[in-house]
């Protein structure tokens, strides 16, 4: 199972890279979202999958799933949401002002030295 | 912290006080407040002379950054004290002179702050024992010199000269730092004294020679030796007090100090000795040859300074031999003493000559020799001083320049006779070069006296010439007086300062007991050389019209200046091109760099360490897992190819919700809940923005563009898979998870481990995460509410300008 999730997260990360490198801002934002999914999956896999019980303390259970990656991923989910939301609004604003969502036309080359 | 530690930074502290005084005290020339500083320092330094008289030294430790071996250790021996006295002594006179020279209208505050900064820097260079500190202060002298040369910032020549001096001396300084690091690597210390005692380590052909070359690059650039001398003539754009102080008496001698200081370290290196000797002699000849033809009086003096520095440099080269051969051999000690003596003499006569030049410039409005003439009767005091100092420079008895020049010639004759290297067969060249250089020295000295003060009055000067005020005259007068006094009674100096300084150069223990005499008898070759110099020099001067045409053969294209200018020109062009090639301004280009670097780094690491995989311990695969993997892959594929924004948003949602399901399968209920909630909100947010988003989610892209992206993306994906697999297979450390599992209840009184880790074990992380979240929220709110004035185009551009800043 771990082998499959690692490969899957690699595929997600690769696809995210491709999306981030494209011109359209919307695709870049989608890419960031996909990237965070890939990384979450990778982190979770590092703590080994499907071993032991749900990490909630119970008297009869001695074997738990690794809680540490879960805690880290929980933080990461929230942060990545904040990032996605912020960049989405930023892109929206940008589109309204500049009338384009193409990163190449945003460069403003005439202002650079 | 003793007074001497304090004295080094005293000018720097004074610079702050001067700024305050400048604000509140008007009407009095700022120079009067600066004057006491160097005077206090020089007075204090004079009291140290008895201490070092017999070759004793003073070491005062003060830890500054002991962990990296960078200490503020003051080491006072004859050499350091000599330079420190020159710096503060000439500094006092220069400040006095500047009061008369610079009017109140100039930016005096800037001027004096730079000057005080320079004083601190220079004192630091000559008094500190630590090479790292030496380097620090060394670069500080370059910076203050840069600021002073560009003092009149509106003049193009000033800024050109300032940049040139900065580039060349900083290049040298940087090389020197490399040399220091090599040396400390070889000897295991940053202290110069300890390097000297470990100097037998610095013998290797490779590292030792490289260190020699690097340190010498520092010394040669600073002391304007061939071929790096080109910055010094252009540095003459600085105000004349600066030229007198930095560019003749002190800063350019820092290179000499460096060579003198490191002579005992490199005592076994023949590269050291011969490079210094030959470069010094070439500089002497070439610069004095060039000095004669210049029309600008300051340019003459600049080239003259270069040639005199070459002279001292060549003497120091011979001193290197003294260490190799033992200090008792007469000729070497002659060379060392001559070098030290000439450092003093040059500071006196050249300092005075620069001040005289400043007076002429100030009183007549020009420095062009063609436009000047017949000033003897109009400016008698200035003339007297110029005569005395020029004769001293030319090496005419009985002035001090004669004494050291004769010792120099003597040393050169001796070295041609001494038989100790492959160069012995061309040994006759050394005195020959020395005599040729001295003849040209005589020529330009004669030119200064004859063409400015004698002859007809030209009436071409912009101002009506008249004798200068006492304020301007007093500093050069003191220096001229010293020229005469040292000339007549040289032995005033020998015991007190020359001998201790010479002893520290050659690392001698026994007192030298030098006696400098005017007369060596008819057998002395130096005497005949002096006579030859005077006779040939006078003859060449008289018949100058017949041979002056040879200067025409020096074409502009063959000068080192031309090389420097062209080099700078092309470096600027290519560096601009290179920068533009790298920094395209497109976000995507930078992302490609970052991802590309990640891919290369990842693969290189994998290739170097090899891949060590272990799949013995895998979890079982369920059918539901495979379905989820399939869903994610399909959704991802649709995102990649679809053109519709709606479809891509929905498919992103599909990936997110599948992730939540994964979390359920992998026994992470908290994650699943969070992911569900967040994914819902995200999708909602996307849909809220839906109305405003561009119609198409995909823009037309070129095939090459796509291909590059594809290669990079595949690379990143592959590297992540490899990293993931190898990280999974190799556990280098025990997991810390067990600690959290064991103590979840007794330490935090909670049962849900993930929650406890978040709010208790890693509580601060969560607090700051909340903070990040809050900041993002505020940012979103502001962006939503922000009304941008879109009507005026120029205003928009202004905003863009601001945001880029």
TrEMBL record, chain A:
Report the subcellular localization. Answer: Cell membrane
Spans traversing the lipid bilayer: 6-21, 28-49, 69-92
UniProt entry tagged with the keyword Nucleotidyltransferase: no
GO CC annotation: plasma membrane
Chief subcellular location: membrane
Write down the Pfam families for this protein, in alphabetical order. Answer: Oxidored_q2 (PF00420)
* Keywords on record: Cell membrane, Membrane, Transmembrane, Transmembrane helix
Q: Which InterPro entries match?
A: CPA3_antiporter_subunitC (IPR050601), NUOK/Mnh_C1-like (IPR039428)
Question: How the protein sits in the membrane?
Answer: Multi-pass membrane protein
Q: Which Gene3D superfamilies match?
A: 1.10.287.3510
* UniProt record similarity statement: Belongs to the CPA3 antiporters (TC 2.A.63) subunit C family.
Name-wise, this protein is Na(+)/H(+) antiporter subunit C1
List the source organism.
Phocicoccus schoeneichii
Gene name, Swiss-Prot/TrEMBL = mnhC1
UniProtKB/TrEMBL annotation, chain B:
The lineage's top-level taxon is: Bacteria
Q: Where are the transmembrane segments?
A: 6-25, 32-52, 72-97, 109-128, 134-153, 165-183, 203-221, 242-260, 272-293, 300-324, 330-360, 372-400, 420-444, 468-489, 526-543, 590-609, 621-639, 646-666, 672-693, 705-728, 770-788
Indicate yes or no for the key word Cytoplasm.
no
Domain MrpA C-terminal/MbhD: start-end pairs: 631-695
Q: Which GO terms describe its biological process?
A: proton transmembrane transport; sodium ion transport
Q: State the annotated membrane topology for this chain.
A: Multi-pass membrane protein
Indicate the segments forming the NADH-Ubiquinone oxidoreductase (complex I) chain 5 N-terminal domain, all copies: 70-112
Localization terms from the record = Cell membrane; Membrane
Q: Which GO terms describe its molecular function?
A: antiporter activity
Domain MrpA C-terminal/MbhE: residue ranges: 707-785
Per the record, its GO cellular-component terms are: plasma membrane
> Keywords assigned by UniProt?
Antiport, Cell membrane, Hydrogen ion transport, Ion transport, Membrane, Sodium, Sodium transport, Transmembrane, Transmembrane helix, Transport
* Any Pfam family: MbhD
Q: Domain NADH:quinone oxidoreductase/Mrp antiporter transmembrane: where? A: 130-427
* Broad class of the protein's primary localization: membrane
Q: Which family does it belong to?
A: Belongs to the CPA3 antiporters (TC 2.A.63) subunit A family.
* Name of this chain's protein: Na(+)/H(+) antiporter subunit A
Q: Which gene encodes it?
A: mrpA
């Amino acid at each position: 199972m771990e082998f499959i999730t690692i490969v899957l997260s690699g595929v997600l990360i690769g696809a995210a890279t491709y999306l981030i490198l494209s011109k359209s801002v919307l695709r870049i934002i989608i890419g960031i979202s996909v990237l965070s999914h890939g990384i979450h999956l990778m982190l979770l896999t590092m703590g080994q999958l499907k071993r032991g019980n749900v990490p909630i303390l119970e008297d009869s259970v001695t074997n738990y799933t690794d809680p540490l990656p879960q805690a880290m991923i929980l933080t990461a989910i929230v942060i990545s949401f904040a990032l996605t939301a912020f960049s989405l609004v930023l892109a929206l604003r940008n589109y309204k002002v500049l009338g384009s969502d193409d990163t190449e036309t945003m460069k403003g080359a005439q202002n650079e030295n | 912290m003793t007074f001497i530690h304090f004295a080094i930074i005293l000018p720097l502290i004074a610079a702050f006080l001067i700024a305050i005084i400048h604000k509140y005290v008007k009407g009095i020339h700022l120079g009067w407040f600066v004057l006491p500083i160097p005077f206090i320092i020089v007075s204090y330094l004079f009291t140290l002379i008895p201490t070092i008289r017999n070759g004793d030294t003073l070491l005062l430790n003060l830890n500054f950054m002991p962990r990296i071996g960078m200490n503020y250790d003051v080491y006072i021996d004859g050499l350091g004290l000599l330079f420190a006295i020159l710096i503060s002594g000439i500094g006092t006179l220069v400040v006095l002179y500047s009061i008369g020279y610079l009017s109140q209208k100039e930016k005096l505050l800037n001027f004096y702050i730079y000057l005080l900064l320079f004083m601190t820097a220079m004192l630091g260079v000559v008094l500190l024992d630590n090479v790292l500190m030496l380097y620090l202060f060394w670069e500080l002298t370059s910076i203050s010199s840069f600021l002073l040369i560009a003092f009149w910032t509106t003049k193009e020549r000033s800024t050109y000269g300032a940049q040139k001096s900065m580039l060349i001396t900083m290049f040298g300084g940087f090389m020197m730092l490399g040399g220091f690091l090599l040396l400390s690597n070889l000897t295991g210390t940053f202290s110069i004294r300890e390097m000297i005692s470990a100097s037998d380590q610095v013998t290797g052909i490779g590292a030792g020679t490289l260190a020699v070359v690097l340190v010498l690059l520092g010394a040669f650039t600073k002391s304007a030796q061939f071929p790096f001398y080109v910055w010094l003539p252009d540095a003459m754009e600085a105000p004349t007090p600066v030229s007198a102080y930095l560019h003749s008496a002190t800063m350019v001698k820092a290179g000499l100090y460096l060579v003198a200081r490191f002579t005992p370290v490199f005592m076994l290196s023949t590269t050291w000795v011969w490079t210094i000797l030959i470069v010094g002699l070439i500089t002497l000849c070439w610069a004095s040859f060039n000095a004669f033809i210049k029309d600008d009086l300051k340019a003459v003096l600049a080239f003259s300074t270069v040639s005199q520095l070459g002279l001292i440099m060549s003497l120091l080269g011979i001193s290197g031999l003294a260490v190799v051969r033992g200090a008792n051999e007469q000729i070497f000690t002659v060379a060392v003493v001559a070098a030290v003596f000439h450092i003093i003499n040059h500071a006196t006569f050249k300092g005075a000559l620069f001040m005289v030049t400043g007076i002429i410039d100030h009183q007549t409005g020009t420095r062009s020799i063609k436009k000047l003439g017949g000033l003897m009767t109009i400016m008698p005091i200035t003339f007297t001083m110029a005569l005395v100092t020029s004769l001293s420079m030319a090496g005419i008895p009985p002035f001090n320049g004669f004494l050291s020049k004769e010792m120099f010639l003597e040393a050169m004759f001796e070295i041609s006779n001494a038989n100790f290297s492959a160069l012995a067969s061309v040994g006759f060249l050394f005195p020959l070069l020395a005599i040729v250089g001295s003849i040209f020295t005589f020529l330009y000295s004669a030119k200064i006296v004859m063409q400015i003060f004698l002859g007809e009055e030209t009436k071409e000067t912009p101002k009506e010439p008249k004798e200068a005020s006492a304020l301007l005259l007093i500093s050069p007068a003191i220096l001229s007086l010293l020229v005469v006094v040292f000339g007549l009674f040289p032995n005033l100096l020998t015991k007190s300062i020359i001998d201790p300084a010479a002893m520290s150069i050659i690392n001698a223990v026994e007192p030298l007991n030098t006696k400098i005499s005017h007369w060596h008898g008819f057998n002395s070759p130096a005497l005949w050389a002096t006579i030859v110099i005077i006779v040939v020099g006078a003859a060449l001067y008289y018949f100058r019209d017949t041979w002056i045409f040879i200067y025409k053969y020096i074409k502009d294209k063959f000068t080192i200046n031309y090389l420097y200018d062209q080099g700078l020109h092309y470096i600027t062009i290519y560096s601009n091109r290179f920068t533009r090639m790298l920094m395209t301004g497109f976000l995507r280009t930078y992302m490609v760099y970052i991802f590309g670097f990640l891919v290369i780094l990842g693969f290189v690491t994998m290739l170097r360490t090899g891949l060590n995989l272990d799949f013995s311990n895998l979890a079982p695969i369920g059918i539901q897992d495979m379905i989820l993997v399939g869903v994610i892959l399909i959704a991802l594929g649709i995102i990649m190819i679809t053109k519709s924004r709606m479809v891509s948003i929905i498919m992103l949602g599909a990936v997110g919700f599948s992730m939540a399901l994964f979390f359920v399968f992998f026994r992470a209920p908290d994650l699943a809940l969070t992911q569900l909630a967040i994914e819902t909100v995200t999708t909602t947010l996307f849909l809220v923005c839906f109305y405003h988003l561009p119609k198409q989610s995909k823009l037309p892209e070129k095939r090459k563009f796509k291909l590059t992206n594809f290669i990079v993306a595949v690379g990143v994906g592959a590297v992540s898979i490899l990293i993931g697999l190898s990280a999974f297979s190799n556990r280098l450390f025990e997991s810390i998870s067990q600690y959290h599992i064991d103590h979840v209840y007794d330490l935090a009184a909670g049962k849900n481990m993930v929650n406890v880790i978040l709010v208790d074990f890693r509580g601060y992380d969560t607090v700051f995460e909340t903070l990040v979240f809050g900041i993002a929220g505020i940012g979103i709110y502001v962006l939503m509410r922000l009304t941008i004035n879109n009507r005026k185009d120029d205003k928009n551009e202004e905003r863009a300008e601001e945001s880029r800043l």
